[in-house]
Amino acid sequence: MERSTEVSYGWPDDPVPLAPETAPVPEYASGSLGDLLPTLVAGQGVPGFAPRIAELTPADRNCVFLIDGLGWEQIRSHPDEAPYLTSLLGSSRGGTGRPVTAGFPATTATSLASVGTGRHPGTHGLLGYTVRDPGTGALMNQLRWKPWTAPRVWQPYPTVFRLAHEAGVHTAQVSSPAFERTPLTQVALSGGTFHGRLSGEERMDFAAEQLAAGDRSLVYTYYSELDGAGHRFGIDSDAWRGQLMFVDRLAQRLAEQLPPRSALYVTADHGMVDIPFDEEHRIDFDEDWELRAGVALLGGEGRARHVYAVPGAEADVLTCWREVVGERFWVAGREEAISLGWFGDEIDARVHGRIGDVVVAAHDDVAITASVNEPHESAMAGMHGSMTPAEQFVPLLEVRS
What we know:
The protein is of the alpha/beta class and 401 residues long. 32% of the residues lie in helices and 19% in strands. The chain is built from 18 helices and 18 strands. It has helices at residues 36-43, 72-76, 83-87, 92-95, 108-117, 121-124, 151-154, 160-166, 183-188, 200-212, 225-233, 238-255, 289-292, 314-325, 334-339, 349-352, 375-378, 389-392; strands at residues 61-67, 100-101, 130-132, 139-141, 170-175, 193-196, 217-223, 262-267, 273-274, 282-284, 295-301, 304-309, 329-333, 358-362, 367-369, 382-383, 393-394, 397-400. The protein has a six-stranded mixed β-sheet with strand order 6-5-7-1-8-18, with helices on both faces. Strand 3 (130-132) and strand 4 form a beta hairpin. The termini are far apart.
């Protein structure tokens, strides 16, 4: 897109940095992932919850099938590979044909915590792939949970699943056995009973059984391999398209087994964009002396960065990052990002210091990589995390019986 070339830093040809207030903030409190389960259990009569997504209507039995990496725009762009999901696009968000938003950053740890706790990132506190632990000063990987941190201290709120189970709703999670005892599952998806099933088909069949097991049921099931194919090969790859075809069949398989009085919601934790492997689209922090100046730690991921400055250098780091990458990224100081609502309307005190002194979100198809310190992540073809429609918009496809 064309941008203004008005005077910015005293040179007539300097481009104007993107204004942080122009970033499309997620639809917190009325149409984001953190609003889904509170809306569903409110309709089941669980005390303490009120509906937030106004377009949804109650059902006695609710099933959420979360497909990791299945963005709204990716479904719309692949009708041949996903004929069943495409046929459901008009059902999304209560029949409005609209997506919901993932939340910022649009990444798995953040989104799964939003789904499971019914809270937004600023309160549940899982603010990205990696963030600084204010207590230790070290980067905490919230997907792999390294270094070890007490889960209930890091995220103390009960999950919606737990509260629904305590209120008498039959509650179950059906996922890979590998996820049963992970800290992320403990803090985001625990409550009721976890059932490990290896294959996608087994998960769909058992999720339907669990849905029928109670007069009021809340069942969650999950599939991750689409996201894995996107990261490794990109969403413009045969491998990714093959996975999309498979998840399309899984969704239909589950939908065809719904017991009476059920609602199935097919959603995702984020979308994805392919980032070309060249210097124009990948800015290597580890090789860029300007971006490294005054920076103590680089957190987040390629398209959604938390930048932690050396004490006293915060203002200089913010100015430098705006000058160097501000034409292609939204760049905000911590308090500015908070005031603009990037992480939701509330920020818990324990969470405040996890946010970068500078928060950076990609606008274009670009990423800030770190080839030395993040070699695996830097080699990914497909990435996500920011507030662009391709990453933020996720489906809320609905099937009722």
